[in-house]
UniProtKB/TrEMBL annotation:
Residue spans crossing the bilayer: 12-37, 43-65, 77-97, 109-130, 150-168, 174-195, 222-251, 271-290, 297-317, 323-340, 377-395, 415-436
GO molecular function, one term: symporter activity
Superkingdom of the source species: Bacteria
Keywords of the record: Membrane, Transmembrane, Transmembrane helix
Protein family membership: Belongs to the sodium:galactoside symporter (TC 2.A.2) family.
GO biological process annotation, one example: carbohydrate transport
Keyword Transmembrane helix: yes
Organism: Salibaculum griseiflavum
Xref: SUPFAM superfamilies: MFS general substrate transporter (SSF103473)
Full protein name: MFS transporter
Length: 447
């Protein structure tokens, strides 16, 4: 039975709430520790990475449990509804640090609530990803669903990357987290309600954890794609983790460009995220068309190659005194990032179908867990890697929001948010063409 537009859009809506949290944790936690709590960059990066590694450990467990859940609301809904509450509670708590805790003394508080928030995130994200393979087996519908998802995700990027930093600057980080919490909860809960009548596997899986893992690992094209998606995510996560620093230290607007006044009222960081989001939203229909015309793999490779060219252009443009020109570059960045956002999420459910057809096992939660594992590993490594790089070149922590940095430290930041991610994406493109393409062609002739 074909999904209605309301069901496709409703499924996508949940990602608005998910992405707000993802952007907040990637964009603000490291900068919050180093620029407001006075934690040294190397320690802050390592601590953030440790929490995100812990987050990965919970993925297979939640995937397995959601596959086996038996409730009148289905296998996935109870996890998503409860996880949303845990996620927002942890997010607000991690920023609500008591005034007397500063420096490394604040780490136990921040990390404890950060762990809680990431557990809630896993409770939402794993079942949510599993639904993509459960409510439809039509590849074109999956592309359309993913376009809706990424359209809402772009709004989440705007809220998390533009609204939250502005609210944090005016009222504090905890206040900003509290303000966006109802939006996160509402998006996830309404999404669950909107697909309540969509097709799904009504009975829980009886597959053991060992069998589940064997089935997932035995799907070689899926495993290659999951690993390469993790490589892509590492590049994007490095950019995201470094962007708050780049907005402070690499863009010194002269104040006389068309968007200068807007940058001053929103902050440069918020303006750049708004530009990025605009590009992403504008690109979604185009990437659906490209996927139908070139195939999903061809469209993804095209998008990543354009992304690489844009990062080289951004390297040449920074440092800059023209915030308007940089905002224009970020519109283009959002358009190229749209391929990374949309297409892999439409590709991997097609590979889940291969295992279900061969074995009869409905283990979408297991596939979703392994899929997100690579993404989370990359997101865990990125802040730690950036913290180590900046620390090695003498980056100075502060509690004032900004400190004087050496030329070497600024150069390291400049390269870390442009050329390093570009090089990582080059590796991803090679991997897609050399490793993934021949394996996928054996099981998906149209891949």
């Amino acid at each position: 039975m074909a999904l209605t537009i309301g069901q496709k859009a409703g499924w996508g809506l949940a990602d608005l709430g998910v992405v707000v949290f993802v952007v907040v944790k990637q964009l603000l936690v490291l900068a919050f520790l180093t620029s407001y709590l006075g934690v040294p960059a190397g320690i802050a990066g390592a601590a953030t990475t440790a929490v995100l590694v812990f987050d990965m450990i919970t993925d297979p467990l939640i995937g397995y449990l959601s596959d086996r859940t038996d409730s009148r609301f289905g296998r996935r809904a109870p996890w998503m509804m409860a996880g949303a509450v845990v996620m927002v509670a942890g997010m607000v708590g991690l920023f609500a640090v008591p005034e007397e805790l500063r420096g490394t003394a604040a780490l136990p508080w921040v990390l404890g609530f950060f762990c809680l928030a990431t557990v809630g995130f896993t409770m939402v994200a794993i079942p949510y990803g599993a639904l993509a393979g459960e409510i439809t087996e039509d590849g074109r519908e999956r592309s359309q669903m993913t376009a809706w998802r990424m359209g809402f995700a772009s709004v989440g990027i705007l809220v998390g990357g533009a609204l939250v930093p502005g609210l944090a600057a005016s009222g504090g980080h905890a206040h900003a987290a509290l303000v966006v919490s109802p939006l996160i909860l509402g998006a996830i809960w309404f999404s669950v309600w909107s697909i309540r009548k969509a097709p799904r596997h009504p009975t829980p899986s009886l597959v053991s954890p060992a069998e589940m893992l064997r089935h997932v690992l035995g799907n070689r094209p899926f495993m290659v794609l999951a690993a390469l998606y993790g490589v892509m995510t590492l590049a994007i996560a490095l950019i995201t983790a470094g962007l708050p620093f780049a907005a402070l230290y690499l863009i010194a607007d002269t104040g006389d460009t068309p968007l200068s006044a807007l940058a001053q009222s929103l902050t440069v960081l918020s303006l750049l995220f708004a530009a990025f989001t605009l590009g992403s939203i504008l690109s979604q229909a185009g990437w659906v068309w490209a996927s139908a015309t070139l195939g999903k793999l061809g469209a993804l490779v095209l998008g990543l190659c354009l992304y690489i060219l844009l990062l080289f252009g951004l390297f040449a443009a920074l440092p800059s005194v023209n915030v308007t020109a940089i905002a224009g570059v970020f519109v283009l960045a959002g358009m190229t990032n749209g391929a990374y956002q949309q297409i892999p999420w439409a590709m991997y459910p097609d590979l889940m179908d291969v295992t279900r057809a061969r074995t009869g096992a409905a283990i979408e939660g297991g596939f979703s867990a392994i899929w997100l594992f690579g993404q989370k590993l990359a997101n865990a490594l990125a802040p730690g890697a950036l913290g180590l790089i900046l620390g090695a070149f003498g980056w100075q922590e502060t509690t004032e929001g900004r400190a004087e940095q050496s030329a070497d430290a600024l150069r390291a930041l400049h390269v870390s948010v442009t050329l390093v991610p570009a090089g990582i994406l080059v590796l991803a493109v090679i991997g897609l063409w050399v490793l993934y393409r021949p394996r996928a062609a054996r099981v998906l002739p149209a891949a």
